[in-house]
């Protein structure tokens, strides 16, 4: 079933990516998974300045007819379009590249402990097909990708209008 889910997500991503990009958004991820009794097709989006509920609605209206035309899913499912969020899984090489170039803090979890720990936090300094190198508070650590259970990047949430107004009051 995992291969089927991966294939569905890949087909949908390929079909909708240009339309999402043309609308001014970036397509962070597409995933297809089971949650309780339901199958979920989740489209994660981003753009400069963050994502609002209106953005999610707009992208839903854009991608829904494309997905309906493609018809990649036999069973019933729920389409969810959401912000990629402030903590994002780095599932693809392009995600790792984005985190590396953006000097983002990442949390890395390993399958098996190294030096007594399964959790490491740092900034990705380099990566290749087989490994990721992290700067963990000045200590460089290299991890084979096959050791990594998951890796998430921490993004700063864009300031809200309320936060911006508060900053102006404080000046």
Explain what this protein looks like in three dimensions.
- 34% of the residues lie in helices and 40% in strands.
- It is built from four helices and nine strands; from the N terminus they run αββαββαβββββα.
- It is α+β, with helices and mostly antiparallel strands.
- It has helices spanning 2-22, 53-70, 93-101, 161-170; strands at residues 26-35, 38-46, 78-83, 87-89, 105-114, 117-127, 131-136, 139-144, 148-154.
- The longest helix has 21 residues, at 2-22.
- α1 (2-22) crosses α2 (53-70).
- It has a six-stranded antiparallel β-sheet with strand order 4-9-5-6-7-8.
Task: State the main characteristics.
single chain, 171 residues, alpha+beta, 6-stranded antiparallel sheet, 3-stranded mixed sheet, 4 helices
Which whole number gives the mean pLDDT? 89
Helix fraction, binned, reads 25-40%
Radius of gyration: 18 Å
Shape: globular
Q: Give a short account of the largest sheet.
A: 6 strands, antiparallel
Indicate the structural class. Answer: alpha+beta
Series of secondary-structure elements, N-terminal to C-terminal? HEEHEEHEEEEEH
Please tally the β strands and state the result.
Answer: 9
> What proportion strand?
35-45%
First-last Cα distance: 56 Å
Q: Which ranges are low-confidence, i.e. pLDDT below 50, for 5 or more consecutive residues?
A: 162-168
Q: Please state how the strands of the largest beta sheet are arranged side by side.
A: 4-9-5-6-7-8
How many separate helices? 4
